[in-house]
Amino acid sequence: MTLAAPRRPTLLSIASAFPPLAITQDEIYEDLFKHWYKDIRNAERIIKNTGVRRRFFAWDPRVELRNGNLGVGDRVRVYERVGLQVTGQSVEKALGQLDRTRVGAFTMTTNSGYSGPGLDLFIAKKLGLRSSIRRTFVGHMGCFAAFPTLRVAMDSIAARPDEYVIANASEYASLHYHPTPDPEQAVIHGLFGDATCTAVIGSAPDGEGVQFIRSHTEQLYETHELMGWHMHNDGFRMTLSPYVPFVLGEHVDAFLEKLLGPEKLTAGDIQHWLIHPGGPKILEALARQLKLTKERMRASWHVLSEYGNCGAVTVMLVLEEVLKTDKPKRGEYGVMMGFGPGLTVEGMLVRF
């Protein structure tokens, strides 16, 4: 009796989409932040040191916020309208020529807006997906939320290996800009951009295609105050401590041992590093600790420059960039890493 080859969750396709409005860092500083942060010392240097060259925007905050602030409801209405269009583009591109009748589940995450039914239902309807599709929404977890979203997809594939699963991350962080003259917000508003990215995951024999091997999660319970994402009357607001890069650098080696050890791998076995570019100081701190050259982290730096920190979407953009530009060889390993409120560190081992 011949045993069937083991099967693994496998990336069938990945596709990103962006709102049509692109604004360079120089433009938004001159047109908006220069006025908002006129009383903050070194505001221009703070914003331009983020490493972001340009970003995409679901709305133009230079126009929408010129007469003052807006409430949560006004912002979420834009999320519903723009998100349906842009997220829908990403999902449709990812599905491409795949057999849509095999799509059995749709998992989506965002930190940018909430409505019920969610964007996933309307997108599934528009694309003619079957009415029995199982939908899971992963909300308000922060920049690492792509990982639980992918894990939901992996679990679904393990239970139903003949189906396909849509895994989408969408962020429209610009909808929560506000003119509070605070240095911390200047950093955040200089970093975050809008994007969406969709992966379609199926099942394939071990070794065939880009496969998700295993994941690991670590909660750094004593550091929860260093990063947060909270709802206020005038929108959602993030907190981001300058100590975050140091904490991540301190814990990354132990984290990687737990992620890679069960597969008998070490950091030296990893050819591709797909690290969430939360900001330049985070990338620099991890590069120092892991002894990685800037070229080894090229994709992360590229995404930061061209799109900004797009929250939960960002690590998926890095994966897309690695596949498109670096073209990993079959059998090479990659590590995806993300960080968010908790502090929570997430990682996933990928074999190309």
Automatic annotation (TrEMBL):
<dbReference type="InterPro" id="IPR011141">
    <property type="entry name" value="Polyketide_synthase_type-III"/>
</dbReference>
<comment type="similarity">
    <text>Belongs to the thiolase-like superfamily. Chalcone/stilbene synthases family.</text>
</comment>
<dbReference type="InterPro" id="IPR001099">
    <property type="entry name" value="Chalcone/stilbene_synt_N"/>
</dbReference>
<dbReference type="InterPro" id="IPR016039">
    <property type="entry name" value="Thiolase-like"/>
</dbReference>
<keyword id="KW-0808">Transferase</keyword>
<dbReference type="Pfam" id="PF02797">
    <property type="entry name" value="Chal_sti_synt_C"/>
</dbReference>
<feature type="domain" description="Chalcone/stilbene synthase C-terminal">
    <location>
        <begin position="218"/>
        <end position="351"/>
    </location>
</feature>
<feature type="domain" description="Chalcone/stilbene synthase N-terminal">
    <location>
        <begin position="8"/>
        <end position="205"/>
    </location>
</feature>
<dbReference type="InterPro" id="IPR012328">
    <property type="entry name" value="Chalcone/stilbene_synt_C"/>
</dbReference>
<dbReference type="Pfam" id="PF00195">
    <property type="entry name" value="Chal_sti_synt_N"/>
</dbReference>
<protein>
    <submittedName>
        <fullName>Type III polyketide synthase</fullName>
    </submittedName>
</protein>
